[in-house]
Amino acid sequence: MGLQKVLYPWLVVGVLNESPSRLGLAQLAVLLPSLLFALPGGVVSDRRHRGSWLSLLYLLYLIPVGALVIAFGTGSPTFTQLIIYGTLFGTITAFVQPARESLLGYAAPELMHQAVAKVMAVQFIAQGIGFIIAGQLDIVSPMQLLCFQMLVFLLSSIFIKRGHPIAARVGENDSRAKRTVSKKPLLELREGLVLFRNNKSLLHLILIVFATGFLGFGVYLVGIPLITKQFYGGGATLYAALQITFTLGIISVNLGVMNLTSLFKKPGRLLVISFLLRGILVAVIALKPTLWLLFPTIYIWGVFSGLSMTLGRTVLHNQVPDTMRSRAVSVYQLCLYGGAPLGAWVCGLTVEWIGLSHTFLTIAVITTTLSLLAAMRSPLWQVRGIQPQ
């Protein structure tokens, strides 16, 4: 995924030299499937053995990546081919995310924050390695990077299959089989949605998660590649370095959370505060700081983003039953990654309309305003963490 996050947008703006609006459209193609398939993905995951299902999904990644390898082998991919690739990749990811996240259900509730932090740390350390490798585009061809990515997906499929054998989860399989017989998919989907309607704290959680996806991820996915090229005249190496810096922030905060014996007393309050501070950081970037200031700003942005991800997922997992975990996660992911493609597209259009700096400032003002409203009106402000007994 680290390779994907650097290579794909850079093929659009660095190789094909497409416009900001087309970069937003390309990011939309990757993330839009989350709007369409995240909820069905949660239902399917709750009805199947998660290890076998995940293993199959990781094998399916070989189809779009392999097709892009063929495109490079016959010349250079067109923008249309990149859109098709992004759509296929995003569709598979929409099914992967709820199934993978649901595996956190095996952790004890009072230690959920540590489990989430460990997963986040490992995930973003691996992504950071991917960013470093992708930053070598000046000396390594995109086709070689894509072949390496295919190898990683193949090994991931094998390891997931071995790590979650069917025989080890007999009770889980039996309960899923009973639900498959007794309930219709649409009824199961409705149960997942009703869970958020009835719990106001969870409802406000996914609202702020959607705002994070639309505003924060939108400006990050489109804005960071553009400031790399337009503000600083950099290439893929500088872009990868900014991605690595952001990831180091995420890793750092999760290494800290891993060592906490108990979760923060009011994680919802901290979630809102981190959203506010990220808005301020976006405003700082809008002022075109020097590289010496840009890198610390990106790092701190990563710290608050990583903290937000951990807090949001911990609150979610501690408030939903295991039998509905994949569906709850799919709603959460729908709001996060459903808001991101729309935000990326709108961000690209706004950049062409009012410019890059003004777009960043506008997003910063909106983020700050929503944070203050959440602090004054949202029940999320009072949500308490589960403490060890």
For this entry, give a set of tags.
389 residues, mainly alpha, Growth Hormone, Chain: A, 16 helices, 80% helix
Report on this model:
- Helices cover 80% and strands 0% of the residues.
- The chain is mainly α.
- It has a single domain, classed as Growth Hormone, Chain: A (Up-down Bundle).
- The longest helix has 31 residues, at 200-230.
- It is globular, with a radius of gyration of 20 Å.
- Mean pLDDT is 81; it is low at 172-182.
> Whole-number radius of gyration?
20 Å
Shape: globular
- Percentage of residues in strands: under 5%
- Global structural class: mainly alpha
Helix content: over 70%
Whole-Å distance between the termini? 38 Å
Indicate the mean pLDDT.
Answer: 81
Tally of contiguous helical segments = 16
CATH superfamily placement: MFS general substrate transporter like domains
Please name the CATH topology: Growth Hormone, Chain: A
Instruction: Based on the coordinates given, report the CATH architecture.
Output: Up-down Bundle
Low-confidence residue ranges: 172-182
What letter string, H or E per element, gives the SSE order? HHHHHHHHHHHHHHHH
Output the CATH class name: Mainly Alpha
Biggest beta-sheet profile = none
How many DSSP-defined strands? 0
Number of domains: 1
